Give the backbone structure.
Amino acid sequence: MDAATCSCILSILEEAYPHACNPQDFFSDPFQVLVLTILSAQTTDAQVWALRAPLFSRYPTPLALAQADLLELEALIRPTGYYHAKARHLLGAARMLVDEFGGRVPDTMDELVRLPGVGRKTANIVLFHAFGKNEGVAVDTHVLRLARRIGYTDHSDPIRVERDLMACHSPERWGALTDLLIAHGRAVCTARRPRCGVCPISRFCRYFTREGCPPQG
């Protein structure tokens, strides 16, 4: 897909979802952004946001989290699912923050991906929302689905999908692109039944031009 088409799609999505990238929806504290992003895997935003107050009341700093009891932490984050693995990742990440980074969340990709539970997707989200850095595009399930449907990429590997998305968008728009595609994937281009009839970018979409609008309702 050429850069002009990519820019047009992004502009339409920005108009359709003006609050998708609202900084108030996230937390400027890098520690909170990191923890909540790790917890967000395979769960809903509502479940994660509901834990914010009790979680950071109990563990307000990396040091406090590093000293947490594993079973107590598991019980607290259990509603997010996969809580055994997530608790281990959170403890490991907090301990590394304390031991190797002076209790601060690092602001580079190379350092972030060293933390337990942090891959490129999580690191991209932390860099954008905690530090305002556009290092890449966070490819979650929504972004992967939409990138293939719309026609940004033919790949299924997240790294190659990210490269294709980065290639046709200017760097300053990479972070916003993730949030906009996620918003569109939740509201319109859903996994089971995309609502092509109300999609503002259907005229650019490979899925729509090939498949037509599936029955609605």
Summary: The domain at 23-131 is CATH 1.10.340.30 (Endonuclease III; domain 1). The first helix runs from residue 3 to 16. The radius of gyration is 18 Å.
